[in-house]
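INSTRUCTION: Work out how this chain folds

Token vocabulary: learned, describes local backbone geometry

RECORD BEGINS BELOW THIS LINE
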Amino acid sequence: MKPSSKLLLLIVLLLPVVGQAAAESADYEPVKLIRPLETIIPHELKELGMVNPRASFQVIVGPKGEMVDYLAVSATHVGLLPKAEEKLSKARFKAATLDGVPTTGKITVIITFFDPEQRAWKQGFAGAPMGGNVSDAVARKLYRADPDAVAFQESKPTELDSPLTLAETKLYRLHAPDAEPPSGAVIAEYFIDHHGQVRLPEIIKSDNEYLSMSVIMSLRETRFVEPTNGGRPTYVRVRQPFNFD
């Protein structure tokens, strides 16, 4: 009988990501992105005149080269995120190895954007692009006056427009066969992304392996109301204790 995809995901998430010290002291090869990622800039953003528009992600890659989890960590403009996530979903990776054995690893992936009309013009294949209309000029002026106002970046929980609000969750309490559920405490750290999804959960401290699995499974079934800062999508880091009596 094949294990369920949920169980496989749980196993991979609980595998430790190789730390810096281990990587430096062993025969370690980091995760590799097989091909650079770039995509066409959204039409509604092309007239802003952004310089090197891009979006950056932290990605966890499993031993088979599969993308296990990811977090959008920055973008020149929040409007780049939908196309960036779509492009990221098609990325291919070569898994990290430790002493020749595939292992779970982390990689920063940067997705760049380009304007095909601008590229064709610079390469001499087309005439200069049109300058846009009055509305485009106004939008471009506003963007240049304060580009950080539309950038995507991390926020502190205290900077959010409203407190974090739980939208849905499902609690698990796992235990060994023919055994009582264990008691104890777990401290977990995770991110809540701009969709309200829990991303990159990590167990910081735990009294029991089954409690760790219970927390990870519960977090994977948890969603929050999308966090915003100044009306813009954002993401936050959370450290949370879990007590099992």
